[in-house]
Each structure stands twice: as C-alpha cells, then as structure tokens.
C-alpha cells in the first residue's frame, strides 16, 4: 500500500467513526427529549425536569404524576387565563386543591408572586387548599407569606423525594408528602411589632 491509499483508508475510517458518534449522540439526546415529551412519571428524573424547556412540560409531567398517584379529578388548566393555578385535583379527604407549578433552575428562588397568585386562584376554582410546587427553592419572604396564608410549599428537595417515593411504589408516603399541612412557625407583622416594642 502506498501513502495515498493509507491516507484514504484513514480518512474513511475517521468519517465512519464520526458518523457513528453522531448517531450515538443523536440517540441519547433524542431519548431525553422523547422521555420529556411523553411526560412519563416512571421515566422522568430531576435531571430531565431541569432540562425541560418551559413550564408547560413540567405542568404536563405533574398532571401525569398526580393521575398515577390516584388522585381524583386531576385537571390541567389552560395556559392562558389559568387564574394562577396550573393543576386542580381532589385529594383523599375530598378537598379540592390548586397547584401552581414553577420549573426554575436549582439556584433561582421562587418569590412572593407565586403565593399571591395561587392563593387568589382558590376562589375561582372553589378550592380548599393551595400548593406551590417547584424544582427550585423559595425566598424567605415567600415562605413567610405562604405560612401566614396556609399555602403549602413543596420545594426541590420535596420534589426529589416525591419522585423517589413514586418510583419506589411508596404511594401512601408520596400522598402524605403532598397532603400534610405545613406547621412552620409564623411571625406576622403584628407579632413582630409587639416583640420590637418590648
């Protein structure tokens, strides 16, 4: 074999390897996109949620998750004119609950507006409870406003636990996580004024 034949074989070999790598990468990326588009709670992980392009994919995932958990009357609201709620469902005690889903980056905190919006949506949906569920964390002000108004907050750690419980078929524990009331101590404006005036 002469030098030009060696170079030709080497180039052809490199092209074949590059095409094979491109095919493998495309399959891996396509699988992740396919899993997210199906919104299958049995397949989706927190990493898939972090890669979701917008909140509507997260809302669809939660819709399927809550159906799989066995909740009654799970409804996904329309994107426009949702009045602050993304999901509506009835829990085991017969309480209608509204959820606002916030798919944010792990380091992007959810602020006051989420609590304000979900709390005010309760009247429109005739709900007994309100929940904000995020893939991130909450600001301290958000936690305070939620506690004062009885809005349940489920953060990234809760979401990861919910995913783990669901996949482990520990449905009862997953339902408890969603349905239990928060019992965080509340310091209201009035109690803070009284404490400062002493």
UniProtKB/TrEMBL annotation:
<dbReference type="Pfam" id="PF04471">
    <property type="entry name" value="Mrr_cat"/>
</dbReference>
<dbReference type="InterPro" id="IPR052906">
    <property type="entry name" value="Type_IV_Methyl-Rstrct_Enzyme"/>
</dbReference>
<dbReference type="InterPro" id="IPR011856">
    <property type="entry name" value="tRNA_endonuc-like_dom_sf"/>
</dbReference>
<keyword id="KW-0378">Hydrolase</keyword>
<keyword id="KW-1133">Transmembrane helix</keyword>
<keyword id="KW-0812">Transmembrane</keyword>
<feature type="domain" description="Restriction endonuclease type IV Mrr">
    <location>
        <begin position="54"/>
        <end position="163"/>
    </location>
</feature>
<feature type="transmembrane region" description="Helical">
    <location>
        <begin position="6"/>
        <end position="25"/>
    </location>
</feature>
<protein>
    <submittedName>
        <fullName>Restriction endonuclease</fullName>
    </submittedName>
</protein>
<dbReference type="InterPro" id="IPR007560">
    <property type="entry name" value="Restrct_endonuc_IV_Mrr"/>
</dbReference>
<keyword id="KW-0255">Endonuclease</keyword>
<keyword id="KW-0540">Nuclease</keyword>
<keyword id="KW-0472">Membrane</keyword>
<dbReference type="GO" id="GO:0004519">
    <property type="term" value="F:endonuclease activity"/>
</dbReference>
<dbReference type="InterPro" id="IPR011335">
    <property type="entry name" value="Restrct_endonuc-II-like"/>
</dbReference>
